[in-house]
Structure formats: structure tokens, C-alpha cells
Amino acid sequence: MLAIAIINYNKYDKTVECVESVLKTVKSEYRIYLLDNASQNESFDELAKLYSENGKIELIKSEENLGYARGNNLLLERAEADGCDYVLISNNDIIFNENAVDLLLEKLKKSGCFITSPKIMGTDGRQQASVKAVRPSYREYILFSNYVLGNLVSKKKMREYMKKMTPKSESGVYWASGACFMADMKQFKEIGYFDPYTFLYFEEYIISEKALKKGLKLLYCPGASVIHFHGASTGGSANLFTRLENFRSESYMFSNYYIISNSRLRRIRRIRCLEVLFTFTKQKKIKDALKFVKESKRILNTTPKEEV
Questions:
Q1: DSSP structural state of residue 127
Q2: So what's the pLDDT on residue 159?
Q3: Burial, 172: exposed, middle or buried (Cβ in 10 Å; 0-12, 13-18, 19+)?
Q4: In sequence order, which residues have a C-beta less than 8 Å from that of residue 81 and are 6 or more positions away?
Q5: Residue 162 Cα distances to 96, 134, 157, 225, 293, angstroms
Q6: 206: exposed, middle or buried (C-beta count within 10 Å: 0-12, 13-18, 19+)?
Q7: Which residues, other chains included, contact 236 with Cβ-Cβ below 8 Å and sequence gap of 6+?
Q8: Separation in Å, CA 211 to CA 20, 28, 112, 187, 216
Q9: Spatial distance between the Cα atoms of 21 and 147, rounded to a whole number of angstroms
Q10: pTM of the full structure
Q11: Distance (Å) of CA 260 to CA 38, 150, 214, 253
Q12: Is the pLDDT of residue 308 over 50?
């Protein structure tokens, strides 16, 4: 059976849209594991009104905000206990198009891969960068994963990089977006599910590195498509909490999985500080920007690190 793991935090309206798209489009046997992650509004009550009597949905309430990794691990453990063979991990701001889930499941079963990943489209009709065909080099990472240095890259080079990273047809890939992917439960358990140190962000990079070391395969399936309301679940680009958690996870990932030197870690921090100063200043959040500069230094100095 297929488990579908969805986490809600405060955005119950988006969660309802996501769940309804599952109920309308999925023909395979499935069970939705829906976690309210200690929402600070009426989310749980609203979701309970709609789904507490639905036999396809198990609604779970957490008294603590567990974040993405620990929240999904809780759902994975429930699914494992129920004997689920496959799991769909989905943000609550995803809308599933017709046959998307069934096709991902079919491809997963036939290929024996660890993960199948859909084509993810934005609400503007543009395809989002939801897969990476190959492991990016450190130079590629710092040039193409941020908008400060990214503005210095020519449009031609950016197009070439995106073409290199995003296959047009079904293909094996190194990395798949954590916003929506399907996984084989046995292989997922083999790598220990999600690393509980992270709260938000970079979980998929860690999964990719774990899979690479174990020889597990990720498959991009563009025939299956979903719509992503990007940023709806995390508060946008000028949110101090999410930006600090982003850097915390990024620093941890580079220190323990895709291991790089301390000097390169410090360079990434400087880039993130420039990003935050640029973004927050435009929204007149100078105090938050300065707090990020201070806190990011503390985070970098206290992040658990493997030896390089």
C-alpha cells in the first residue's frame, strides 16, 4: 500500500487543496498520514471537521513543531507500522495533476529505484528546478544556488547549467526536490529516513548523499506533474526564522555529508549574509538582517562537523 505523508503548519487552506487533489486523482490503494505540526491557529480543528471521519486519512496532532524531517519521520514510522510499501512525501502546498501519483508509483515499482520524482510546475506555468541530473561541484553550487552571485552569471551560462541539470525525458538523477517525491519504504529505512538534525531545508541534499553512498537510484519522471505554490508553506524569502533554519541545515549538510573545508563554509555564510541584507533591506527589515549576520556566525561555529 502507498502512504501519503503531508504536514500542515498554520496553512490549513493549502493543506485542504492538497488533500482534495489526492482524493480526486489517485486510483491506487493509499492512506494519507496528515500531521498538524503544532499549528498556532485553528488548523487542526478545521482539518478534523473535514477528515476525522474519512477512513483514508489518519489525522495526527503534534504538541510540538517537529519541523520537516522529524515530522515526516513520525509519519514514516506510522506508515511502516501499517505495512506500507511505498511513501509519497509531499509539501502541503502541492496540487496533484491527474495520474501523477499513480504514474510515480508505477515507475517506482517497475524500476526498483529508491525515489521517483515528478516534474514540478509553478503557479506561473514555469517549470521549477526540481531535480539535478548530476552532483554539482562546489563552484557550481555557489554560482547557481543563490541570486547574489547568480546575477553575475550570464543568461547563456545559466541556461546551459539548467539544461545540464534538468533532463527533458525520464532519466536517473542525483537530487530530487523535497517538495514532492515518492520512495520505496525499505530503501528509505535502509538510509535511516530523514536526518532529524535538520528542521527545514536541505533534507533532499542529505538524502541524495546517503543514496549516492548506498548506490540507491533516483528516477525523474516528467510524465507525472504537480503544481507547487512555492514558499506558501515557509513564509517567503524575508522571514528571519526560515532563513536561519535554511543556513543551519545548509551548514550541517556541508559539514557532515557533502563535506567541504571550513574556509568554503565561511564563504557560503558570507554569500548568505549578502542575500539576506539585500532581501531584508528592500522590505525594511534591517534589524532582522543584522540579527541574521550575527546568528549565522554562531550557527557556523556550533554546527556538528565531521573531519574533512
A1: B
A2: 87
A3: middle
A4: none
A5: 24, 11, 9, 18, 30
A6: buried
A7: 242
A8: 32, 26, 14, 9, 5
A9: 33
A10: 0.93
A11: 35, 21, 20, 10
A12: no
